[in-house]
Amino acid sequence: MSVLKKVVSLVLALVLMASLSVPTFASEMTTSEGFAPTATSTWGDLYCYFDPEGFAKLPVAIQIEYNNALLVSETGTNTMNLEMIPLSDSNAETTASAYATLYEDTSAGEISTQDLSIRGLVELLLGVSSTKTTIEYTATLLCTKTCPWMYCSVTVYDADTDKFVDFDSAIESDPTKICVVDGTFDGLKSKHKYKIKAFGNLTPPQGYYLSNPLITEATKETKDQ
């Protein structure tokens, strides 16, 4: 009987340990899995997932712009991906860009026939480089006109897990022609391909409008050593 009691006590102890450890493990898995997008997921959903407090502090008009921009859509952008051509002012190993025109807002809603340089040009530049477990990024939103607000975000996507695993953003709330967000995505897998996506948008000066936000992306593999 004493042996049986010991066995029962051991089993009960193991069950108790398992019941205590499961919630902690599940919580860790939930926070480390990343954001799994759907066909209707937006940049606003992504922003809220990684930085809900930061998103809540944005002006409502900018929150709406993020919520209207689909993660899987590149409508209204022109994208160019140039492998291994560094940006002139950085050590980027891979670059990509998107550009658009700042149109004149006429009373009839028609596009102005003025020269492009007068209406204004907008460009989103993305430069990335990698180490064994990190990807460094710089996203720069540029406009030939001074704008009341400019903002951009960068995220990293793991195609193997179909999840976004990190996010960063920046906003310029004073009149400006440039907005930059740069940093490093840490804790990545070595010798692994990731997709880095950048989003840029602005509040145009009075009398102008931008039809769509700018989105561009670049694929980058982390190094093996």
Secondary-structure topology with pairs:
Blueprint (H helix, E strand, L loop, with lengths): L1 H31 L10 H8 L1 H6 L2 H9 L9 E6 L10 E8 L1 E2 L11 H4 L1 E10 L4 E13 L1 E10 L4 E10 L3 E10 L7 E11 L4 E2 L4 E8 L4
Antiparallel strand pairs: 1-2, 2-4, 3-10, 4-5, 5-8, 6-7, 6-9, 9-11
Helix pairs in contact: 2-4
Provide key terms for this protein.
5 helices, globular, single chain, 225 residues, 40% strand, alpha+beta
How does this structure look, described?
By secondary structure, the protein is α+β, with helices and mostly antiparallel strands. The chain has five helices and eleven strands, in the order H-H-H-H-E-E-E-H-E-E-E-E-E-E-E-E. Helix 2 packs across helix 4. The longest helix has 31 residues, at 2-32. The protein is globular, with a radius of gyration of 23 Å. The model is unreliable at 1-31 and 75-89 (pLDDT under 50).
Low-confidence stretches: 1-31, 75-89
Q: Can you list the strand order of the major beta sheet? A: 1-2-4-5-8
Question: If you average the pLDDT, what whole number results?
Answer: 79
Count every helix, treating DSSP H or I runs of 4 or more residues as helices.
5
Q: Oligomeric form of this entry?
A: single chain
Task: Describe this structure in a few short sentences.
The chain is of the alpha+beta class and 225 residues long. It has 5 helices and 11 strands; from the N terminus they run ααααβββαββββββββ.
